[in-house]
Design brief:
166 residues, single chain, Rossmann fold, 38% helix, binds magnesium ion, 7 helices
Length: 166
């Protein structure tokens, strides 16, 4: 397996990841990036459809865990509590340290864990380094020029994977 940050799966939005899909892939723990994956930057509470989605995942016996690089504890905590999931902030992705801590805490092996996020060089790379399944979500909103530029720089890894990396 290479450490090039190619996602294993891609979805347009978080709620497109179904419990059936995760069960089929043997995922017991789905770690979630927060900003632009669960909600746009600046949003203070998760929308109703996201709460329903989280409930459907949990009902299938799959754990959820927010792993955010954000430093704003209040906001991350509000989201985590609304969704009823544990959280880690200041995760410093692409470091795999916090995803590994979450797996240890819940006694889940890397092959039974996935990390879903909108960024290649933090979320997908962190998942690769932690040995878990990387799932790429299309960013909810590219609300400023820097986010848009980063999205362009990620382009090589958003295209279908070259065969050599399979
Ligand atoms: Mg993000």
């Amino acid at each position: 397996m290479s450490f090039l940050p190619f996602p294993k799966y891609k979805f347009q939005k978080l709620s497109d990841i179904t419990a059936d899909f995760l069960v089929e892939k043997g995922v017991e723990l789905l770690m979630l990036d927060l900003d632009n994956t669960v909600a746009p930057y600046g949003a203070e509470t998760p929308p109703e459809h996201t709460l329903c989605w989280a409930e459907s995942i949990r009902a299938a016996g799959i754990g959820l865990y927010i792993i955010s690089n954000s430093r704003k504890e209040g906001r991350v905590k509000t989201f985590a509590q609304a969704l009823g999931v544990p959280y880690i902030l200041r995760a410093k992705k692409p470091s795999p340290r916090k995803p590994r801590e979450a797996m240890l805490a819940l006694d889940v092996k890397p092959e039974n864990a996935a990390l879903a996020g909108d960024q290649i060089y933090t979320d997908v790379l962190s998942a690769k380094l932690a040995g878990v399944t990387p799932i790429l979500i299309r960013p909810i909103k590219l609300s400023n020029p820097l986010l848009a530029l980063r999205y362009v720089l990620e382009a090589p890894f958003r295209r279908p994977r070259p065969r050599a990396d399979v």
